[in-house]
Amino acid sequence: MNFENTKAFAEKLDKEDILKEFRNKFHFPKHTDGSDIIYFCGNSLGLQPKTAKDTTEEVLQAWKNLAVEGHFDGANPWMYYHDALGNKMAKIVGAKPKEVVAMNTLTVNLNLLMVSFYRPTKTRYKIVIEAGAFPSDQYAIKSQINFHGFEVDDALIELFPRKGEDTLRTEDILNTIKENGAEIALIIMGGLNYYTGQAYDMESITKVGHEQGAVVGFDLAHGAGNLPLQLHNWQVDFAVWCTYKYMNSGPGGVGGVFVHENNFEKDLPRFTGWWGYDRATRFLMKDTFVPMEGAQGWQMSNGSIFSMAGLKASLDIFEAAGFDKLQVKAKKLTGFLEFLLSEIKTDLIEIITPKNPEERGSQLSIRVKNSNKTLFDKIRAKGVIGDWREPDVIRIAPVPLYNNFTDVYRFVEILRQLI
Ligand SMILES: *Cc1c(COP(=O)(O)O)cnc(C)c1O
After folding, report:
1. DSSP string spanning 22-89?
2. Does residue 106 line the site of ligand 1, with CB under 6 A?
3. For the domain 57-318, what is the CATH code?
4. Distance 159 CA to ligand 1 centre (A)
5. Separation of 222 CA from ligand 1 center, angstroms?
6. How far is the centre of ligand 1, averaged over its atoms, from the C-alpha of 237 (Å)?
7. Ligand 1 neighbour 141 (Cβ under 6 A)
8. Residue 372's pLDDT is what?
9. CB of 224 closer than 6 angstroms to any ligand 1 atom
10. Is the CB of 130 within 6 Å of ligand 1?
11. No. of H helices and E strands in the chain?
12. Which has fewest Cβ within 10 Å: 94, 137, 369, 398?
C-alpha cells in the first residue's frame, strides 16, 4: 500500500476504516489539557472496554441477589462462566474449544504446564528459549530446571541473534534445535518477543522441534489477540498467555491456556485441584481424581469471576469486530507507523522490529541512540503513552480495535518535532 505523509491522508484512512466505531467502545485516559491520550500501550495493558462496568456490575448483582446460588443461577452462572471465555479465545488463537481454558495467571500457568510438559531424563533435559526472554519466563524456566535437579548453565540453551543483528533468523533457530536435538526436552519461546516485537515462525519451530523429539510450547503474552495463530494446526503442544495486554481484560486479568488434543490421552503428570475434576461428578466429592477432558482438566481452583468479567466484555467486542478484519487493519496501521517514522530523516532513532509484516504484530520497537530516555519522557509529556524498555527502546503498539490512523500521524508529528 502507498502511504502519504499528511494529516488529510490519515483522516481519509480513518474514514474508510470499517472498524472505526470500535474505538468508541473503549475508555481513553485524559491528557492534562483534557484531550484523549494517544494510547500505544495496549501491549502492556489494554484499554478498558466501556462494557466492563456492566459485566462486572452483573457479577456484583448476582452475588448480592443470589449469593451462593449464583454458581448455578442467573444469566451467567459462575460454574460455567469460563466456558464461553475459553470458546471465544479458542477462535482467536486457532484452537478447538476443548483445547483452551481461562484460569489463574500467566506465570502460574507457565509453571503448571511445565509440570506436565517438561519431563527431563538423564540424557534429554535441555530447554531452548530465546535470549532476552521476558524475565518472568526466565525465572520460571530456571526454577523448573533447578527443581528437577539440573544446572541452568548446562540445561538452558539460549538463542542469540548474530553479531550486529537485533532479531533471530529462523534458520539459526532451527539449526540450533537440530544440532542439540537429542538433548532437548522442551522448546519454550515467546511467540512474539516483547522487546524487539519479532514474531517467530511458530509452525516451523514446532515441526522441527517435534522431529527432534522435543515438546514445544509458546508464551503468547504478546501473541494472543495480536497475531493470527493456528495453534491446533501447527501442532503446538501447549501455550500460555495473559489477557490484560491485547485482550483488554484489566489489570491482573485471568490467564489463558492451550493444550493440544494430541496430549489429552497421554496421561501426563499434573498438579491437580477440584476444578480440574470431571464436572458431572465433581460434587460427589470422591477422593480419587478423575480429570475433566481437555484443557479444563488442568484447572485447580474455582474461577476468579471478577477477573473474568473484564475479559468477557472484551471478547464480546473481538467477536463483533471479527479477528480477520482486525488483522487487516493491524497490518495497515503498523505499516503506516513504519512509513511515517521512515520519513523522519535522523540517525537518532532506528526501528529494530522486523520489516516483514509476517514477522511482527502491532508493535514497533524504536531504538533511541545513546539510550536517551529523555526523548521518551518528552513524548509522554505531550500526551502519548508508549513505554520505555531498558536499555534503549521505546515500544509503540497501535492496536486495531481502538487506535486509528490519526493517532499514528499525531504521534509521529510529535516525535518529529522533538527530534
Ligand atoms: C507480560 C508478560 C508476563 C507477565 O506475567 P504475569 O504472570 O501475568 O505477571 C510474562 N511473560 C511474558 C512474555 C510477558 O510478556
Report:
1. GGGGEE-PBPTTSSBPEE-BTTTSPPEETTHHHHHHHHHHHHHHHGGGGGTSSSS-GGGHHHHHHHHH
2. yes
3. 3.40.640.10
4. 19
5. 9
6. 19
7. no
8. 85
9. no
10. no
11. 12, 15
12. 369
Nearest residue (CA) to ligand 1, atom 13 = 134
- Grid coordinates representing 288? 480419587
Q: What's the pLDDT at 110? A: 98
| Nearest-10 crossing angle of helices 405-418, 323-342 | 20
Ligand 1 neighbourhood includes 221 CB (under 6 angstroms):
yes
The C-alpha atoms of residue 264 and residue 261 are separated, in whole angstroms, by 5
Atom of ligand 1 at shortest range from CA of 44? 1
**Does the CB atom of residue 190 touch ligand 1 within 6 A?**
yes
Q: Is the CB of 113 under 6 A from ligand 1?
A: no
Please provide residue 60's backbone torsions phi and psi, each rounded to the nearest 5 degrees.
-60, -40
Between CA 326 and CA 299 the distance in angstroms is 31
The x, y and z cell numbers of residue 398, run together, are 497501535
CB of 173 shorter than 6 A to ligand 1? no
Residues 232/193/337/317 CA torsion (nearest 10 deg)? 40
Query: What residue ranges do the domains of the chain occupy?
Result: 7-49+323-418, 57-318
Provide block-wise average pLDDT over 10 residues at a time, the chain (419 residues): 94 98 98 94 98 98 98 96 98 98 98 98 98 96 98 98 97 98 97 97 98 98 98 98 98 98 93 93 86 95 97 98 97 98 95 97 95 92 96 97 98 96
Question: Could you say which of 3.90.1150.10, 3.30.70.100, 3.40.50.300, 3.40.50.2300 is the CATH number of the domain covering 7-49+323-418?
Answer: 3.90.1150.10
User: How far, in Å, is the centroid of ligand 1 from the Cα of 363?
Assistant: 16
Which atom of ligand 1 is least distant from the CA of 252?
8
